[in-house]
TrEMBL record:
<dbReference type="Pfam" id="PF00188">
    <property type="entry name" value="CAP"/>
</dbReference>
<keyword id="KW-0175">Coiled coil</keyword>
<feature type="coiled-coil region">
    <location>
        <begin position="211"/>
        <end position="280"/>
    </location>
</feature>
<dbReference type="InterPro" id="IPR014044">
    <property type="entry name" value="CAP_dom"/>
</dbReference>
<protein>
    <recommendedName>
        <fullName>SCP domain-containing protein</fullName>
    </recommendedName>
</protein>
<feature type="domain" description="SCP">
    <location>
        <begin position="74"/>
        <end position="180"/>
    </location>
</feature>
<dbReference type="InterPro" id="IPR035940">
    <property type="entry name" value="CAP_sf"/>
</dbReference>
Length: 290
């Protein structure tokens, strides 16, 4: 999920301000001193990391062969194992995304990572409910000898190999479908041809998201701080009007100082919450970056 940017103006030191002759000066010092700090919280956009390479076109010579999902997964993990990488887990949602992609390319006769209406691997994953930190996609069109021949063709292409051997990818979905692909759609002669799709993913659950309850508490504190600032301004104006009435002025002075103390305590508490939330954000962003 996405986290919005918070911009707080916080009073970060909690001192008690006592009445002096010139209350206007006191309020001005509070507003203009270094006790205020700007804190901006931002969370990395999870949906920007999509890895693709130019789709791979193979031979369109008719061959009496069959490609299988299980075989492509097995061959893919064998290549990873040869370089000491862990196997990719088959994910049901990514498998549906891969199948949807292959079917859509046949139905609309295109062979690109982005569909004619602009949907790419990220949108495909979202449509099937796969929440991710990073996704990748390999495409192949053509008639290959077998599953090993297909994966070898991908491995011989640097961009496709990079996805297969990426050390952060943990899950995979594969689809292999055979169908009609017209000359206008990219086939040299038209006729039946295999379409193969690999969808790779790093699930969002790998990184613990910053606390939503803490974010809501910060928003509530910000609103309360804004409200107290308005109240302080109103009390200051009322104090200025009552300078000639000593008894009333003394009463208002006490109320004003009590409000300042409440404001400072809330600001101090909020500053600590901001620091905690920022620490969670930093940890999350570092996890996303890998």
């Amino acid at each position: 999920m996405r986290f919005k940017t918070l911009l707080f103006l916080l009073l970060v030191a909690g001192a008690v301000y006592y009445w002096r002759a010139d209350l206007a000066i006191i309020f001005s010092e509070i507003r203009q001193s270094d006790r205020f700090a700007t804190v901006q919280l931002a969370v990395t956009d999870l949906k920007e990391k999509v890895l693709t390479s130019t789709p791979l076109r193979g031979s369109f010579v008719t061959r009496d062969t069959v490609l299988t999902v299980e075989g492509v997964v097995r061959e893919t993990n064998a290549r990873r194992a040869a370089e000491g990488l862990p196997p990719l887990r088959v994910n049901a949602q990514l498998s549906v995304a891969a199948s949807n992609k292959a079917a859509d390319m046949f139905a609309r006769q295109y062979f690109e990572h982005e569909s004619p209406t602009g949907e790419g691997p990220g949108e495909l994953a979202e449509e099937v409910g796969y929440q991710f930190l990073m996704v990748g996609e390999n495409l192949a069109l053509g008639n290959y000898d077998d599953d090993a021949d297909l994966v070898t063709a991908w491995m011989n292409s640097p961009g496709h190999r990079a996805n297969i051997m990426h050390d952060r990818f943990m899950e995979i979905g594969v689809a292999v479908q055979k169908g009609e692909f017209s000359a206008e759609g990219g086939s040299a002669s038209g006729g039946e041809v295999w379409m193969a799709v690999q969808e790779f993913g790093v699930p969002a659950s790998v990184c613990e998201s910053p606390s939503e309850s803490l974010l809501l508490l910060l928003e509530g504190n910000k609103n309360k701080i804004d409200q107290l600032e308005r109240e302080l301004q109103n009390r200051k104006e009322e104090l200025d009007k009552e300078r000639g009435n000593r008894q009333r002025h003394e009463q208002l002075r006490g109320e004003y100082n009590a409000l300042v103390e409440e404001y400072n305590k809330l600001a101090d508490a909020t500053k600590e919450l901001v620091e905690s939330y920022n620490a969670e954000v930093r940890e999350f962003n570092e996890c996303v970056a890998g």
